[in-house]
Amino acid sequence: MHWTGWVVVALVAIVGGWMLFDGIHALVTGDYVTPGSGEHAGQLGPWAQAVSGAGLEPRSLPVKLVFVGYASVYLAAGAAYGASVQGAWWAVLVLAVLGLWYLPFGTVAGLAVIALLLTPSLRTAAP
Questions:
Q1: pLDDT band (50, 70, 90) for residue 92
Q2: Are 26 and 58 in contact, with CB atoms under 8 Å apart?
Q3: Which stretches does DSSP call E strand in the chain?
Q4: Prediction pTM value
């Protein structure tokens, strides 16, 4: 695999790993990881406004379950892509697009994943 493919795998692992951790943390403790002090103490990131704008309560059980489910599928797709499984390129691309709502880091990382996957070296290497 081209080195940029490993960057894709790393970005998927970072974003998916954090979302999985944070979602499980929210399911177990009742809330996501938030700052404990300072100006933003107890506040969720900008992604919560995007979720609220879609009519969903960010701290609701369904959103927490979507967090865990999306992260699990994204991580599995990233692992499959790293293992050169046929179709994983498309799965990672679709999931990166679907994760653009996760402001700010998920959006930036998702755009990077999309851009890297669409480079000729990775697009032509897609199994």
A1: very high
A2: no
A3: none
A4: 0.90
